[in-house]
Amino acid sequence: MPRPLTLRRVRALGRFLAGWLPRTLLWQTFLLVAILLSLALFAWSQIFRYFEEEPRARDLAQMVVSVVNLTRTALINADAARRTELLIELAALEGIRIYPAEPSDEIAPLGNDRPMRLMMAEVRRHLGAHTRFALKWKSLEGFWVSFRLDPEDRDEYWVMLPPDRLEKPHALEWLAWGGAALLVALLGAFLIVSRIGTPLRQLARAARMVGSGQTPPKQAESGPQEIAVVARAFNQMAGDLARTDADRALILAGVSHDLRTPLARLRLGVEMSGAPMGEVTAMVADIEEMDRIIGQFLDFGRGDPQEPLQQIDLCGLVADVIEPYRLRGVSVNLHMPEPILAPGRTLPLRRALANLVDNALRYAGENKPLDVSVFRQGEGVAIEVADRGPGIPEADVERLRRPFTRLEAARSNTKGAGLGLAIVERVMRSHDGRLDLLPRDGGGLRAILCLPLEPSAPGR
C-alpha cells in the first residue's frame, strides 16, 4: 500500500530536486526557458497532430476505398480465364494481393488509436459495416482490408495493400525541422540570458573585491535598464566606500602623527623628573606601548601598499628583522635554508613579520624562545613564527583577523589596539598570500606567512 503524501515528504522531495538544479542564475533561467520551449513545441505538435489526423484519415480511407473498388471492378469485369493473370499483375505492379476470406482466418487487428478509428469508420461508411481490417493475415503481414464483390454476396476477399500506405508521410522531416527550431530557440534563449548573467557575474566579482578591501573597477552602466541601474548604484556605493576609507585613513594618520610629538615630550619629562627608577621605568614602558599602538594606527591607515612587487631574498629579510630582537636579548631560533627569492614588497613584509614577533613576545613572554623558520611549501614559500604562549582557539581565529579585535580570555596581556593581525592580513592579501594561525604541538601558536613564488597574473 503506498504511503500517504505528507507535507514533510513534499518538502523532502523539493530539497532532493533542488539539489539537482543548477546554482547559477544563467543556467537556472536557461533551464526554465528550455523547459518552456520544449513544452510549447510539444503542445504545438499535439495540436497540429490532432487537427491533422482527421483529414489524413479521410485521405487514407479514400485511397483504401478507391483501391478496393478498382480491384473489385477489375475482378468482376475480367474474363474468368484471365483473373489469375490479373491477380499476378496487381501483386507485381501495385503490391496488391487478393485472397479469399474465411470466418476462421487468423488475423491481427489494427491499432485502436484515434487515426485508425477515424480511417476504419470512413472506410466502413463507403464499403459497408461488414468490412474488416488486419495487420496480419495468417503469416503474411501488411495492411489487409476485406471486401465483397457484391453487397448481397456472402463471400469475402482479403486485399493486402503495401504497409507503407499507413505510414505518416514526411514524419522524420517534421521531427528534424522541429528539433532544429527548438535548437535555434534554445541558442537564442542562451544568448538572451547570458546578457543578464555576464554583468551580474562582474558585479559579484566587484562586490568580492569590495569585501576584501580592494577598489573594484568601474562597472559598465549599459545593457538592460534594470542591470544598468544596479551597476550605477554599485559604482556610487564603491565610490562612497573608497572616499570613506580614504578619509578614515587620513584621519588615523593625522591623529596618530600629531600624538607622537607630545608623547616624546612626555617621555623626556618623565626621564628627567627625578622620580624613583622603578616608577620611571614603568611610565616609560607605558609611553612606549602607546607609541607602538600609534605606530599600528599609522600602519593601518596607510591602506594597501601601492609600490610594485620586486624579487626579495626572504631569508635575508627575516634575518634583518630578527637581529634587533637578538640584540635586545630575546632568544630566537632561526631555521633558514639557502636564499629564497620571491616577489614582494620589503617594507610591508618587514612590518608584517615584526607584528607577528611582537605578538609572540607579548603573549608568550620574552623568557621563552621563539622559533622562526623559512621553508618552501608547495608552489610557494612560508615564514613561520612559533611561540609557546596560550595559543588561539580555532573558533576565534577568523574573528581575530578583523581590526580592533582581541582575544582577552586566551591571552593574559590585553595591551594593544587589536590591529596587529589585521595589518598582517592586509599585507598578505596584497601579496596574493595568506596568514595561517595554527596550534603548535605541545602548546603555543604557529603564525605562518604563505607567499607565492610567482607573481599573480595582471588584473587579478
TrEMBL record:
PROSITE patterns the record matches: HAMP (PS50885), HIS_KIN (PS50109)
Entry keyword annotation includes Hydrolase: no
Provenance organism: Azoarcus indigens
InterPro entries with a match to the protein in the record: 2C_sensor_his_kinase, HAMP_dom, HATPase_C_sf, HATPase_dom, His_kinase_dom, HisK_dim/P_dom, HisK_dim/P_sf, RisS_PPD
Reactions listed under catalytic activity: ATP + protein L-histidine = ADP + protein N-phospho-L-histidine
GO cellular component, one term: plasma membrane
Pfam families to which the protein is assigned, alphabetical: HAMP, HATPase_c, HisKA, RisS_PPD
Membrane topology note: Multi-pass membrane protein
Domain of life assignment: Bacteria
Keywords, in A-Z order: ATP-binding, Cell inner membrane, Cell membrane, Kinase, Membrane, Nucleotide-binding, Phosphoprotein, Transferase, Transmembrane, Transmembrane helix, Two-component regulatory system
Record's protein name: histidine kinase
